[in-house]
Amino acid sequence: MAILSLHSHTFFFIILLPVILNLRHHLAVAGGCQYPPVIFNFGDSNSDTGGLAAGLGYAISLPNGRSFFRRSTGRLSDGRLVIDFLCQSLNTSLLNPYLDSLVGSNFQNGANFAIVGSSTLPRYVPFALNIQLMQFLHFKSRALELASTSDPLKGMMISESGFRNALYMIDIGQNDIADSFSKGLSYSRVIKLIPNVISEIKSAIKTLYDEGGRKFWVHNTGPLGCLPQKLSMVKRKVSDKHGCLASYNAAAKLFNEGLDHMCRELRTELREANIVYVDIYAIKYDLIANSTNYGFEKPLMACCGYGGPPYNYNVNITCSNGGSNSCAEGSRFISWDGIHYTETANTIVAMKVLSMQYSTPPTPFHFFCGG
Q1: Catalytic residue (choose from 78, 100, 171, 337)
Q2: Which stretch is the leader sequence (predicted)?
């Protein structure tokens, strides 16, 4: 036991400590954000800070949230998500889910519309991107209505300038691709759907622009083919050199190329907009490909799940459900539950996002500070 403890401390100081110090440096640089911006986020489980639990009463229990919050907050991770670190870098509070009725109408710093399982299509199925956009429009209308009255909640509402100067974050599309594969569609049929997904995201950005939004932060999708869930459920595997599903990753790359192209088009079309495209795929695939450099032992295995190696994922016994188990040290794993990342992995992803090396155009995140 002493040897394991010593190894654990050595691992922390050699691998994790530099990462944490680097992240703190980025947080300190952006900590000069004297006037944090209002933030509105649209997305899926990668950035859902409790929307599914609040909106549908879906139980997301421990061990989710065990490493930082010490309780479940509705996040599908053992701790913070990338969006949490980005919020902290701007010296603002973590985003409350729009559907959470127990936050005391505390949406002064924005709202999170992201919900687990969300996609862009079909448009009118909760909680598709279009539905999230409709929720935002309703929220904005009510906020401005209250702000113009003598209502006691007036001081808790976001002003017209708050909406205009807000940062609009979009992180969606993963489920459109993943769900298409899970329905048994061939690779060629999956990629034919990609332009429609891109079109929905483009339409959402244009709508937000028409509503006065000018600052946009767009994440591409990660390497789907490296998720333990996908690897465990696909019987006939054609893998790349790191053990990931080649077709899933190829589809993700095509989606990302289309998303990048769309952002370039919109920068020309929407002349007053600042649109930053972030290559999350490159960041996450690097974690897989060079996992040992980051101290991760089994990059394709979930910390929390059932079944043991190689993936520790069983669709019938998922993390936090009866019969599942979780690893002792989530910091050794990239994947938390077979789909979502551990806080340690999210820490590294956030650090790289804040480095500007993966952003087009290269933009410091504190560029979005209010003034």
Answers
A1: 337
A2: 1-30
Residues 6+ apart with CB under 8 A from 25: none
Q: Which two tokens stand for residue 258?
A: 């289309």
DSSP 212-234: T--EEEEE----GGG-HHHHHH-
Q: Which two tokens stand for residue 65?
A: 């949230």
Distance between CA atoms of residues 41 and 27, nearest Å: 20
CA distance 290 to 210: 43
Catalytic residue of the set 100, 340, 359, 366:
340
Count of H-run helices and E-run strands, the chain = 12, 8
Helix/strand/coil for 97: strand
Beta-bridge mates of residue 326: 304
Distance CA 313, CA 327 (A): 13
Structure tokens at 173: 């599309």
Question: What are the residues whose beta carbons fall under 8 Å from the beta carbon of 60, sequence distance 6 or more?
Answer: 52, 53, 72, 74, 75, 76, 320
Q: How far apart are alpha carbons 87 and 63 in whole angstroms?
A: 23
Q: Is 151 a catalytic residue?
A: no
Pick the catalytic residue from 26, 44, 45, 119: 45
Per-residue pLDDT tens over the stretch 343-353: 999 999 999 99
Bond preceding residue 228 cis, omega within 30 of 0: no
Known catalytic residue: 48? no
**To the nearest whole percent, how much of the chain has pLDDT over 90?**
82
Tell me, yes or no, if 340 is annotated catalytic: yes
Write out pLDDT tens, residues 119-170.
999 999 999 999 999 999 999 999 999 888 877 767 778 999 999 999 999 9
Residue 18, phi then psi, degrees to nearest 5: -60, -35
DSSP codes, 288-308: HHTGGGGT-S-TTSBSEESS-
